[in-house]
Each structure stands twice: as C-alpha cells, then as structure tokens.
Amino acid sequence: MFLDYFALGVLVFVAITLFYGIIAIHDIPYEIAKERNHPQQDAIHVAGWVSLFTLHAIWPFLWIWATLYREDRGWGFHAASWVEPIATNPTATAELAELKREIQSVSLRLTSLEHPAEPAARVES
Q: Which of 3, 33, 97, 102 can pair with 38 through a Cys bridge, CB separation 3.0 to 4.6 Å?
C-alpha cells in the first residue's frame, strides 16, 4: 500500500515538474528579447504562449526572432565595417567620374546619330 502512494507521489511530482519545465522553456525567447531590449519583445512573449498550444512548433522561430536583434548593432543588416564607402575611396571616385564622362559621350553620339543635322535648303536657280 505504501508503494502505491509513493508511486502516485512520484507520478504527481513528475507531472508538475514537466508542466513547470515546459512553461519555463517556452519563456526563454522572451527572456533573450528582454535582455537585448528587443523592440518586439511583447510580441515574442505572446507568441511564446501561443507556442504552448502548437506544442512548441513555432518555438525555434521565436528563438531566432529574439536573437536576431542586438541593441549595439540593431538587426545587423548594416554594411560591414571593413567595407570602405565609395565616397572615401579615391580610386573608386575617379573611376565613377570617368564612367560618367564616358556615358555622357556615348549619349551625345547616339543623339547625333538619331537626329542628324538637316542639310541647308537648296536654292533653285
């Protein structure tokens, strides 16, 4: 009889531990978002609760969503620091100016081919 109550106690303990464990796990993306000052942390928190009803099928996507944003670099889609902007690269600036002149020259030649100068009117004597 004692073992029956002991087994029931273990079963209840395991059920409660699993229940609270799942709830604690579903909140991990929200905690990450809160720590990173994510602008959409409330949405991540709500989606975490929704993921309980989808058996955590969307939980990996919430993890990715929460970890994409960092306060120091935002979403991370800025140009890398090792990429030199064209404005500060003298070689690129010179090449760009040369290309602009070449395009202007070709454009003028095309315009002159499309509209040749009209010959002077012949004066009949």
A: 33
The answer to whether position 97 is within a domain reads no
Q: What is the pLDDT of residues 13-53, one digit of tens each?
A: 999 999 999 888 889 999 999 999 999 999 999 999 999 88
Instruction: Dump pLDDT digits (tens) for 75-86.
Output: 776 655 555 565
3-state secondary structure the chain: CHHHHHHHHHHHHHHHHHHHHHHHHHCHHHHHHHHCCCCCHHHHHHHHHHHHHCCCCCHHHHHHHHHHCECCCECCCCCCCCCCCHHHCHHHHHHHHHHHHHHHHHHHHHHHHHCCCCCCCCCCC
Question: Is the model's pTM score more than 0.85?
Answer: no
Residue at 98 is within a domain: no
Full domain range(s) for residue 10: 2-77
Question: How many domains is the chain built from?
Answer: 1
